[in-house]
Amino acid sequence: MRYYVMTLFPELITKGMNTGVLWRAMEQGLISLDCFHIRGYTKNKHKRVDDYTYGGGAGMLMACQPIWDTYLAVQERIRERAAAEGRSPGRKRLIYLTPQGRVFDQAFAEELSKEQELIFLCGHYEGVDERILEEIVTDNVSIGDYVLTGGELPALVMMDSISRLIPGVLNNDESAEDESFNEGVLEYPQYTRPDEWMGKRVPDVLLSGHHAKVLEWRREQSLKRTAERRPDLLADQTGK
Ligand code: SAM
Fold first, then answer.
1. Starting at the edge strand that comes first in sequence, how are the strands of the sheet with 139-142 ordered?
2. How far apart are CA 215 and CA 225, in angstroms?
């Protein structure tokens, strides 16, 4: 997976990606990151990337030109790589992070993890001139119903959850198979040593060594927890 991120804060993206599992995945060549600093592509002599909004109103808007030129640079990089590898570059999905987009979830992360290259556009200020969005964006994506100052944290959230679904990124101890949202339910409660802490004991069934009973207990706990904390997930499954 190759990520191309168009941003005003490349250092935020690289710092976020250069830790833990994602750093290891980059070292292993399983994922790669190319940041494109939008301010570096502005033709404005003051390096401005924003301007006033037509029709008035508070706040500034990111203008078309710097983003368009950044986009052309991303396309050029994609073309060069494809040529070096003897394949056609094809059309890549370009994700604009926006509170107005489809809300990101595990199923969407799984869908995107099948892509080989993804481009992210991080907005700032009051957002981005609609015309450039119409021209280049394939997917408008939100990470939830709240408003952040910029698209960098949402892009990091997405790259983190997509990357851990790519084969080889997690090792056996970190498997993504048995987790919340798999099969539409939350994960069961988990415990590690010691088997008693502050008078609280680990449930006996988990110490029993009886594999089938452990599985049954976990399934029940998953359903109970989902019903308590996220009844909407169960309603989704029954189509209510
Ligand atoms: N005026 C915009 C609106 O009302 O829809 C909000 C702009 S927000 C202050 C600035 C930028 O942060 C957006 O362009 C977007 O890139 C990012 N952003 C904010 N909240 C987000 C969210 N929930 N999901 C994804 N991106 C978000």
1. 32-37, 2-7, 117-122, 93-103, 139-142
2. 15
Tokens linked to 110: 């799984």
Q: Is 122 in the pocket of ligand 1 (CB under 6 A)?
A: yes
User: Please, what is the end-to-end C-alpha distance for the chain in angstroms?
Assistant: 36
Pocket lining: 113 vs ligand 1, CB cutoff 6 Å? no
Q: Summarize pLDDT for 119-178 with one digit per residue, the tens.
A: 999 999 999 999 999 999 999 999 999 999 999 999 999 999 999 999 999 987 777 778
Task: Let me know: does 73 contact 36? Beta carbons within 8 Å.
Answer: yes
Q: Is 56 exposed, middle or buried (0-12, 13-18, 19+ CB in 10 A)?
A: exposed
Owning domain of residue 122? 2-163
Give me the number of domains the chain comprises. 2
Report the residue among 103, 148, 149 best suited for mutation to probe ligand 1: largest number of ligand atoms under 8 A from its CB: 148
For residue 124, the CA-to-ligand 1 centroid distance in Å is 7
Q: What Å distances lie between residue 127 and 61, 63, 66, 98, CA to CA?
A: 5, 9, 14, 8
Distance of CA 132 from the midpoint of ligand 1 (Å): 16
Compute the average pLDDT of residues 173-196. 89
What pTM, to 2 d.p., does this model score?
0.96
Q: Are residues 39 and 143 in the same domain?
A: yes
Specify if 45 maps to a domain: yes
Q: What CATH number is associated with residue 228?
A: 1.10.1270.20
Query: Hunting for tokens 């957002």 — which residue is that?
Result: 127
Please provide the average confidence, as pLDDT, over all residues in the chain. 96
- The answer as to whether 110 is a domain residue is yes
